[in-house]
Write a structure and sequence with these properties.
alpha/beta, Rossmann fold, 2 domains, nine-stranded mixed beta sheet
Length: 449
């Protein structure tokens, strides 16, 4: 029987900061094929959709006018909420973000109060901690079934005053509150995006033992497809030569990193240290490294220093590349390096797998769940897993990868494409979310090994 699903998220395409937008949008559109799905999200000053409703609410002792804009997008009805802080950048400074999250909560309750006579959701599905106030208010006033998904734990505490401002003082018995803990506490079901991440963060998720499970994200291989490449008709080695030439490098075994330059998660520092270690190995002469990303100024400076030291081997790109250019890279390089310190799910490895770039990744979280390691299961392998934070282990793996014969590389690429397209589709994710909504899904049980 079709369900009415209300999704809450701070990101929804075309508004994208990280992987959250891709995940939420694909889930919403997948569910909308057989269910009625609406989305509430801040407008972030984008003026998306046509004005639908304007109402006033009390916020921080003053009156704020909120406008709900409405649009239909691939079968999903999307309401963007604008006015005051809702029109700031997606993720402004911390204090402004907290206030914005409170205002989004009040605005979401006001909008549903108008819609409820024609759309009363069977389930409210909230994504990440920014939606905790909206989730709390909708649960309080409309009593739907609720699901909260953790895409990545933020592990922050906020003053209880923000809950009081949101008219949720009953959820704030202490001076400081963990909003993720609160969202999980009030939700009827809790999910996160990979089984390994759930177990790695069991110290947190154990607080919700009995209602927590995992739902893998998916990948849209219709976009990440070799058929759409500029030189789809040419051999991969030729595509590699052309893409390296495009970025000013001669041909060689090509390794790519793409992601944020941060010190907490993505492991850029481990990669740069690995390149410095590799520079002393004879194999280095035939290795090429394309590093795409931006962020921490210190890491950017280090990356530039490595590029200046090894101009024949390393190219650093700090521009934001179009998705089509990223697709060309995936479809041309030999390997994609993902040295993350933690990764709840990760999309880079699946994007690479769809396009035949072999992932070399840390054996953690969603990376461990999606990549079958060459050293563990050679016949079914889709990539290579290494310990996180170990530059020497990563260097050894990259040298070994460079020396792989063409038969093994071909098998890895074909296995990877099949696994991405078969096991990690958004259709599978949506089917599992529907099981979560109806309570018919397997749960994490600490005594099952």
């Amino acid at each position: 029987m079709p369900m009415r699903v209300l999704i809450l998220s701070f990101e929804y395409l075309p508004v994208k900061v990280g992987g959250l937008a891709e995940a939420v949008t694909n889930v919403a559109e997948g569910l909308a094929k057989d269910n009625e799905v609406i989305v509430f999200t801040p407008d972030h000053g984008r003026s998306l959709g046509e004005p639908f409703l304007t109402f006033r609410l009390s916020f921080e002792g003053r009156t704020v006018e909120v406008t709900a804009r409405k649009r239909e997008q691939n079968g999903v009805t999307v309401y963007t909420l604008s006015g005051d802080l809702l029109d700031t950048d997606v993720y402004p400074d911390w204090e402004t973000l907290l206030r914005k999250a409170v205002l989004f909560g009040k605005a979401s309750a006001g909008l549903l109060n108008h819609l409820v006579s024609t759309f009363k959701p069977d389930v409210v599905h909230a994504h990440d901690w920014h939606t905790v106030f909206a989730l709390g208010l909708l649960k309080k006033y409309f009593s739907p079934k609720t699901v909260f998904t953790v895409h990545r734990l933020n592990k922050a505490r906020i003053p209880a005053g923000y809950f009081h401002e949101a008219n949720l003082g009953e959820l704030a018995p202490y001076p400081e509150i963990d909003p993720e803990h609160t969202a999980c506490y009030i939700a009827d079901a809790v999910t996160t995006v990979s089984k390994s991440y759930l177990l790695e963060e069991w110290d947190f998720f154990r607080n919700f033992d009995g209602k927590v499970t995992h739902v893998f994200n998916g990948i849209d291989c219709s976009f990440w497809s070799e058929e759409l490449l500029e030189n789809a008709d040419r051999p991969r080695e030729e595509r590699r030569r052309l893409i390296l030439e495009r970025f000013g490098l001669s041909d060689g075994r090509a390794f790519m990193f793409i992601g944020r330059f941060d010190r907490a998660q993505k492991g850029v520092d481990t990669l740069l240290r690995t390149i410095e270690i590799l520079s002393g190995d004879p194999s280095f002469r035939e290795m090429r490294f394309i590093i795409v990303g931006k962020g921490d100024p210190g890491l950017e400076a280090w990356a530039r220093a490595v590029e200046n030291r090894f101009p024949e081997n390393v190219r650093v790109i700090t521009d934001v590349l179009p998705r089509e250019t990223v697709r060309e890279l995936y479809g041309s390089v030999d390997f994609v390096v993902i040295p993350s310190y933690f990764e709840p799910f990760g999309l880079v490895q699946l994007e690479a797998m769809c396009l035949g770039a072999v992932p070399i990744a840390s054996a953690i979280g969603g990376l461990k769940d999606t990549i079958i390691d060459l050293n563990t299961d050679p016949e079914n392998a889709t990539g290579i897993l290494v310990p996180p934070r170990d530059a020497f282990a990563l260097a050894r793996a990259m040298v070994s990868a460079k020396e792989l014969d063409e038969g093994t590389l071909t098998r890895l690429r074909e296995n990877a494409k099949k696994r991405a397209r078969r096991d990690f589709t958004w259709e599978k994710a949506c089917r599992r979310y529907l099981l979560v909504y109806t309570g018919a899904v397997d749960k994490a049980m600490p005594f099952l090994l």
